[in-house]
TrEMBL record:
Biased composition (Low complexity): 1224-1248
The protein, known as: Transducin/WD40 repeat-like superfamily protein
Ranges occupied by WD repeats: 259-303
Keywords attached to this entry: WD repeat
Region (Disordered) residue spans: 1223-1307
Amino acid sequence: MLRLRAFRPANDKIVKIQLHPTHPWLVTADDSDHVSVWNWDHRQVIYEIKAGGVDHRRLVGAKLEKLAEGDSDYRSKPTEAIRGGSVKQVNFYDDDARFWQHWRNRFAAAEVPSSVLNQTSVFSSPAPTTRGRHFLVICCENKAIFLDLVTMRGRDVPKQELDNRSLLCMEFLSRSSAGDTPLVAFGASDGVIRVLSMITWKMVRRYTGGHKGSVNCLMTFIASSGEALLVSGASDGLLIIWSAEHVQDSRDLVPKLSLKAHDGGVVAIELSRVMGSAPQLITIGSDKTLAIWDTVSFKELRRIKPVPRLACHSVASWCHPRAPNLDILTCVKDSHIWAIEHPTYSALTRPLCELSSLLPPQAIAPNKKLRVYCMVAHPLQPHIVATGTNIGVILSEFDPKALPAVVPLPTPKGGKEHSAIYIVERELKLLNFQLSNTANPSVGAIGSISEKGRSSADPLESMHVKQTRKHISTPAPHDSYSILSVSSSGRYVSVVWPDIPSFSVYKVSDWSVVDSGTGRLFAWDTCGDRYALVETVLVPRVPLVVKGGSSRKAREAAAAAAQAAAAAASAASSATVQVRILLDEGSPHVLRSSIDGRNEPVVGLHGGALLGVAYKTSRRVHPVSTTAISAIQSMPLSGFGSSAGPSSFSSFEEMKISAESPPQNFQLYSWENFQPVSGLLAQPEWTAWDQTVEFCAFAYHQYIVISSLRPQYRYLGDVAISNATGAVWHRRQLFVATPTTIECVFVDAGVAPVDLETIKRKEEMKAKEAQSRAVAEHGELALITVDNPQVSTNERIPLRPPMLQVVRLASFQYSPSIPPFISLPKQSRVERDDTILHKEFEGRKVNEVAVAGGGVSVAVTRFPPEQKRPVGPLVMVGVRDGILWLIDRYMCAHALSLSHPGIRCRCLTAHGDVVSAVKWASRLGREHHDDLAQFMLGMGYAMEALHLPGISKRLEFDLAMQSNDLKRALQCLLTMSNSRDVGHENAGTDITAILSLTAVKQENLVDAVQGIVKFAKEFVDLIDVADATGQTDVAREALKRLATAGSVKGALQGQVLRGVALRLANHGELTRLSALVSNLISSGQGREAAFAAAILGDNALMEKAWQDTGMLSEAVLHAHAHGRPTLRTLAQEWNSMLQKEFEPTVTEKVDATSAFLASLEEPKLTSLEDAQKKPPIEILPPGMASLSAPPITIKKPVSAKPSQTPVLQELNKPLMLEAAEPVTTTAPPTTTPDLDQQPTTLPLTTDAVKQEDGSPKESIIEEKDSNEDNHSSKKITSENPASDNPQEGSFIPENIITKPPEASSAI
């Protein structure tokens, strides 16, 4: 029945063992008195110590510590040098261990109906005393060792401090009083119990006059009257009850009651919690008997011998839902864990597990038999049992996914009392529970502020629950493990006994049985009173063969067994899924006798909005292929399989699981037509479906997959919550229970493209339906429409990714505290009063609430401290009136508060009540409003999140952009960038008044420009969104700020300048664009600068932009096309640049001295042969003459009129990007240049037109502006006006003087 969780081999016998309640720590002591602390989760040893002798490491450390403190006196022998002797007991002590010890005693006593503890308002937990320190306490014969596992510092208390008596056992005394100090009681060899203070390290009291022999065991518990008691067992066989409530520590205490428990000595004592009754004491003695005692009358209830001829050495109280009839575990020196049934049943002892079968054969030597020497059950996780054996430590696990046999019923609308149905001892019972607090902290009352700064509705303290149990007259037919479930309407409850197998369906109104049969698989439909089941044929019993019988009877029995096995296999293979529905009168009706699906046997059913069926298969799929899911295509199973190999200390079950991939054996069917709606999936451990059929969760071993169901199945993500046992949906909240924590997952599906398509499709369907209704009412005339001018509303629905946020609500551990080496003063040499320590602790404690304006209590933490999770497996009831309800294995209801504003606001937002969430946010510290706003944004409430008063401007800008409130986004940008008054004054509340531009002061300009540069991307995004939505005023004002920063040289760089230039051109901001061109040129954005210059109509600026940014080819083409006088200069510069690129340059390393001496030498003349070089490279526009050839001049008459005629005629022709074909003119014969030295293209020139005084006359060329349709005359003057030589003056070829084109042609 158990499986192996972890195994640690050892050479010696493990004789002492103990588990930490909250951390995965296990401390053991072997037969050689070696003590080790082992992390059974990570399979690592935390600490080892030789407690029986002298640990030289601790001795050297103690000497070094004394030297560091300045104490060089070696005359006194350090306590670390004292030999410890035999190890008698090991245990952990910290705030967690102290809390859960008190919790166990308190709730065990509260089971009594007349208990005083059951009438108290709240459970008062003991005040923290160790402050984050985790003590390992080792009780040795000669001394007690207190080792802090955090600081690795120890304190040894020799037996001389305790009247020089040998120490045999110990127990921690805890009370819930405010000034309680940690105390530890030691049982000694003289029968006296001595109490030691862990603050002063002095003995504070004695318990005398009880035992005449050595004290072997101690234990504390709380009586039903609320009194703390100490019980001790000794070698004289007596069981003595002492009072632990005495505050005066200066006198000896006498026993309250003495009982004769065993003929021999008392070996161990254990406290057992009994459902609905007073707790019981379990004792085992050396007389091989086990006795059970009542803690009210202290009478013996029963006495048994668990294992004949063997004495028990360990006992543990056990309550597991998978074995409801077992309540005690014990061990003897064999290889079994023995379980004792409850006296209501047979009260027999049977082996629960044979430990040898859990281990692999190589773990045990061939000639060695496994023997158990100690055993302990986990105090908070009853499915974990640790045993110490002669081969090592064995950690067993017993069905951790089993849940209590209880199911909650729907609460009537408006009702405050909730109910649940559970089964115990073959009886159906009704559990009613509700809060008994007059002020419910979940509904809005935060509570008053106490003197210590703690709210009266403190989530750290448990809320008191008023609950009653009622018996139902209908009995249950079986007493084995049962699984309960309820229909969607709450009118029917089903009970399945999988071990029988059998099932029954009860009607809640009168608890009559409406359906029953044989079967172990059962599942409800969450949308109706339908259920699916797999009926099982009962296998006939095999007759027992008495030893010594005839061989014929043996053969007959073997044949009958084989026949029964074959019948069982045939029945299992032929079993099919049957679907039934309950009619209104309660009678069942078969909807489907079998679902036609697959031929494999059915091994699992999962109910919900869809029916999940798991089939038995041996096919294994590669982990890569597990992510490919047909039809659904959205459930990756990445959590299965790992690249890392198993650890050497891993359990063999985990090795087996990691080596095999999960099979694809899970099929989803529709409840309506019983057809498959998906491909094969990996079988989940459990499923949870939202009542609104919007979300579903599939749980696997390491994670939970969450998917959306509307408008179609869509994978949202998975959360890394491992070993989850159950969950319940509450709108967009998934509350998950694990063996150690309670988690809350907030879920939002986001907005996907399929959602937009669905919305569009629904609108079209509505329009068609409206049109069909109109035709049905008014005939064909309804189709006649009149076209009217329609105003199109450009509504943006942005896509939003899904959101999954996990918040831990409860766990077993205390919240992280201040490290002890920072906050806790050294107390080893100074004796301090307990009250002073308590005041200091309260003074340093961080308050969890603060008082805001108007006396409203405001939480200063983002989330509340983790509440205490109830012990053991839990059933999630759900959220009722803002309280999360849970039911434990003892059928006790627990309430977890959701009243903290950080949790409350999220729950309201997930529920859809965003207005109330914003109101509750006033009770949350403003420093946490950004986090809350991010959550609301992920949930799709960006506009409502803008109403949170404490959000930052940066987040406010993002929210305003998401909600399309661009004016508010612009205001946030102006505030963040300090550019509200850049170019403007008189800022008011109106957007036009706020953004009206005026002159800005010089001292504020630098800050404004720096702010604009910092948020340049946000300005550009705002401009784009404003342009897309038609809000030109917002876009223009944001663009003005960017242009102001762009006018400052070096402020904006790269793509930002380019984007600003394009947007200024788009908005027609020519004045600001002209101030931006120089910055574009300096940043190397030549194309953008030329584009801006083209818009401005400045051809010279275009050429400058290209020339300064190295784009000489564009500059030459532009100058050639427009007939610019700088054509020749640009062409020469372009060709020289090309020449440098083609000529190889030899680089030589020359030091500074050589370079200086070389500069002083005169240049040497080279010969004519050296002067010969290769012909230069010339790449010219079409029609342009060579740059190296001498110009050819054509003489023309002096008269200006005939020379101007062709020029004026050419002005009417359009300007082209490339020059026209050159006009051939007959030239006088000249000397032909060398073809090797000069190009063949000859330049074509004309004489300059001269005036009467001999100076060259200006030629008029008209150009058309790019923005305005007018002509502007530009003059091209001679480069040398004083020269009469036409070759030295400027020249204008006839083929270049044309009419300028549009701006687009120039570009």
